[in-house]
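Field reference: sequence -> structure
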Amino acid sequence: MNPNCPMNAKRHAFTIVAAVSRLHDAGYGRLRILCYVKDGISAWRHRLFASDGFNPDDAPGTFLYSLPGRSIATGKNSRAVAAHLLKAFPELMQAAQGPSDDYAAWLRSLLVQHPGAVFEMEEPEHALVNGWRVKSPFFGERPDDTFAVHFFKLLLDRRNSLSGGGLGVDGEKTVTKRAAAYDAGKISPCPADEVFALARRIAQ
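Structure field:
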């Protein structure tokens, strides 16, 4: 645990999301957060970016950070974490300036309704709150790039953020689960074997 942040990882992860909401209120309305829990090891990943929608691929943003480990920000509460983010990522914060929008209101409502919850936000259409799917303000919208390209970039970010370099068994399970979900869903279906091929290329 980082000595500058004496709180457990779950609470820390929630505080990072709450800090993003606080920054929305401070005039950084284009700020977005991509976050998820790494399967099998209960580690959180966080990335911030600036966007009018929810498209992390072509937006100015941070690297993917890990918690526990190299956290994107530390602090005893959301106010302190927000201050850390402002200081650590000035160019991102400049790009994120703008009025609060539907996304900011939606995020604030989730924080109020689900204090201390586990949030996973990787897609424009929905988030997971304690494992339950919640529609986002961007439901039904998606960037023009295909799922395969989007997921390739996400996997590449994950590879670069992990010291071991490969996806491993947990990574392949995640790829299989997400590919199956897209195959059965309504958004840009992509065959599971195609996503596996991308995963293997990155893991090598």
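Note: Residues 9-25 form the longest helix (17 residues).
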